[in-house]
Amino acid sequence: ATAAAAAGGAAPWAGGGERRGMAAARGCPPAGCGDRALAELLLEFSRAQYRAKDGGGAAAVERIERRCLELFGRDYRYSVIPNAHGEVCAHYPRHIVLLEKHKDTFESTVQVGKLQDLINRSKMARCRGRFVCPVILYKGKHICRSATLAGWGELYGRTGYNYIFSGGSDDAWADAEDISEEDSALRNADSQLFDKVRGHDIKLLRYLSVRYICDLMVENKKVKFGLNVTSSEKVDKAQRYADFTLLSIPYPGCEFFKDYKDRDYTAEGLIFNWKQDYVDAPLSIPVSLTQSLNIDWSEYQSWDLVQQTQNYLKLLISIINSDDDSGLLVHCISGWDRTPLFISLLRLSLWADGLIHASLEPSEILYLTVAYDWFLFGHMLVDRLSKGEEIFFFCFNFLKHITSEEFSAVKSQRRKSLPPGFTLEEICMLKQRDRGSTTSLSSDFSLGMESSPGAAGSFTYEAVELMPAGAQAQAAWRKSCASSPQAVLWSRAQQSEDRLPSTGIVEVKSSSSSSSTHSDNFLRIGSSPLEVPRSRLVSASDRESRLEEVRSSFLASYSRTIGLKAVPPSPSGAIGGLLEQFVRGVGLRGSSTL
Known about the structure:
Blueprint: H1 3-6, E1 18-21, H2 22-26, H3 35-45, H4 59-73, E2 76-82, E3 95-102, H5 112-122, E4 133-138, E5 141-146, H6 152-165, H7 179-188, H8 190-207, E6 210-215, E7 223-224, E8 227-228, E9 245-248, H9 257-262, E10 283-286, H10 305-320, E11 327-331, H11 338-352, H12 362-375, H13 381-387, H14 391-397, H15 409-415, H16 424-433, E12 447-451, E13 461-466, H17 471-483, E14 488-492, E15 505-508, E16 522-526, H18 540-561, H19 577-585
Parallel strand pairs: 5-11, 6-9, 6-11
Antiparallel strand pairs: 1-2, 2-3, 4-5, 7-8, 10-15, 12-13, 14-16
InterPro entries: MTMR14, MTMR14_PH-GRAM, Prot-tyrosine_phosphatase-like, Tyr_Pase_AS
GO molecular function: phosphatidylinositol-3-phosphate phosphatase activity
Region (Disordered): 504-525
């Protein structure tokens, strides 16, 4: 099937890309992303690593590619950068999607023709040619993924190979008029080559308006056989990336997830060993990005896998929810293990809030992120499963740990306008108690509500004016609500306020403190009297139910296709914790132990 046929006969677009999306997709039949389609996807995923350079070809792969395009088209206008035989990148999708506009709201300024030109020039700068690629469009900002920077060994190896087999000219990243300069760089100086290649990488980042670069590597440089095979922005000797906001947020590689599997798929209490010889990248985050998060970053080496993943996700959500128009790049080494973990969690979290992919059902967003973020971007599931490195399974099982509102991007937006002393839920309850007026709720309160121009299908409340009679009035109101049989009482768990420096960068190299404990921000008691249609406002309970439905669908399909590898049984004869919960949760057997 051609790229045009996959999109329903879309017309060619500038620079070899093809523009498609919302209007055409509305006339297409549903993508058929139910349990059967997901099972087919997982089976294909577990057979072999996807490689665009192999040309796809299999009917199952073509159906997966087509469904991804259909699902993107539900909410976005987009263009496609063709990569039919891996000529752009061997391990990226054959149809690389550039999201251009989200319904009638946020629009990207990126032009696909210009983007393709920058990609062709810059791809040599990064490991395995996995260039900076935009994958999520949120509030007009591009959230991107890539591999880390290529080191001199890989760069010289690939440029030399291309030079020899292209008859003396490296047309993968050089213009004809630059050949003499490239030859000189290859013969004489590392710096000239790095200036050229990384200069194109920086131009691509700037064109995508990326300001924040989050590096998940636990190393400054990846070393194999005594050679630096990769580098990273944070240790670029020429400081070429100094104009970007660099965040070093070291996160364990896929090898660590064998420990997760061996502990019966239990992430609680699993702490990475930061004392290993190869671990030399300290956590480093500008203080300006941490002040609102109330996290003690000096404790990061004592966090278990749950806390670390939660806190990094909170950081990423905070960055993309900032007031500026800057985009975000997330990368690890090769960009196909840790990178899709956080890209997938970001996509699912924003979807659960109703901020992106608002037209997709839980089964559809699950299909899209498994297919596009993991399979089509080259995650080596077969290899990882054979080694017990189950980072892919961890990603979707981890959704149970991010259901609360503290991970909501909507909550972050609301905080900017909520008056002190009241939560959003309490304000919504005020509105519920006086349906006759949106501006005069009682003699004690005056409240104005307005719609926020967020993503289509979502609705946020912003308190414009709230004038309580005082603390006594607030207390009396809460008391009257608590006595109502339909009331919802939200009790906020007290959190310690960590003191951080007012300027500079949070940089931590070691920590001997004990692991901090985690608790949800809100505890729900009773049932809510406020019934708001999901299409208008995604409440905390909706967010939880949406993510739980995604997780349950994944667990059920994973069980039928790939399956968990049980660890040896405990002396009591019962199977391990997660496996036990799983088989009960999907109804495979009752509550009795084996």
